[in-house]
Amino acid sequence: MKVGIYTLGCKVNAYESEYVVDLLKENGYEILPFTEVCDIYIINTCSVTNTSDAKSRKMIHQAMRRNPDACIVAMGCFIEANKKAEMEGVDILIGNRDKSKIVSLIEEYFKTKKQIKNLYDDLGTEFEDMEIHSFGNKTRAFVKIQDGCENFCTYCIIPFVRGKCRSKKPELVLREITSLVNHGYQEIVLTGIHTGNYGVDLGTDFASLLKEILEIPNLYRLRISSIEETELNDSVLELLKNPIIANHLHIPLQSGSREIMKAMNRKYTKEEYLKKIETIRKIRPDISISTDVIVGFPGETEEMFQESYQFCQEIGFSKIHVFPYSKRNGTAAAHFPNQVAETIKKERVKKLTDLSNTLEKNYMEKFLGRKMEVLIERSDSSYSIGHTSNFLLVKVPGTFEQEEKILVSLSEIQYPYCLGTVSCESEKKQETLVTNG
Ligand code: SF4
Asked: Is the pTM here over 0.85, yes or no?
């Protein structure tokens, strides 16, 4: 049977979809693009904002229209957040537990042709084991090591749809990464709902796991998808001295206003956040530090927004992912007074995004004239593209193999790329490549 899968949201969802694709292939299903007419459509949904809810609904309806006879499977956060909803036309509903049982649920559906609601009141405390051996034809592979969050930031729906913190056993993580590295993956991205909280349920911690992963032979680059300021403790900072760890950290700030930070129930103060960034930059002076910031949180006055804006400027992030506050039913902030008007949110998103673009260009300019190692992700007949360890997107003339590492002299910015020329060492390698065809 032909299956089309569409994935919304975060790296954890992308990983879970990759696992589901592996499972389906192992059981003889044919995977086609979601845009094709299929017998089964799977939508791995997201519910982090109102927009992701709307998009989840849209993709479900798109599948229904594409083939009204198809079996529609909807899973993930949007389903978890709307467990009581009818979801007419959806044949199999899976929340954030039992995605690994998708094959048996599909078989059951085709026996009964009755809607299956595989939903739980409690997502449990066990990590749902999944293990991938490939990650599409990509250069970098995401590895999910953790699920759930118990921080309850007042704007966030995640703890309600992803449940308690659950971690994958270290030996399974090591086996999975070793297998991916042996399959040629040069870069591994550790991901989770609350990655830095890894191990709290297993009596271990993120630093211990990192230490073991860094000993895996032939691992070229290890990237941490996102980590909270509070989880960058001394043991993790010590490991930052290992160059295998990518020279880029994504550390959500959410707001640079003291009052809003408190109202969000964030777990650090401005001073602590700033001090941590300074400590990291002592270890890695050139590190790229990106972040997430919400604007228009209930009660955010123009002064508080200015305070947040200036704090971001002071930190000098390499990129700011800016989000307008999105009211989520079930969260504490949904009931806060002084909800901010959409027009004001739009203005603040524009201002902070403009700042982010300026800061990003400033950061890219720091590396012009330098030689940087680039891991090639794709190439066409004339150019090759890849990322540096500090996540600069680099474009070079020439056709290099995917996964090849080349030394590039960065010469100019053609946003979003840093353009560069290949250093002579890599050129020699390319000539042999071209002559050998
Ligand atoms: S740390 Fe806060 S923002 Fe992040 S998933 Fe948990 S509750 Fe949501």
From this structure: yes
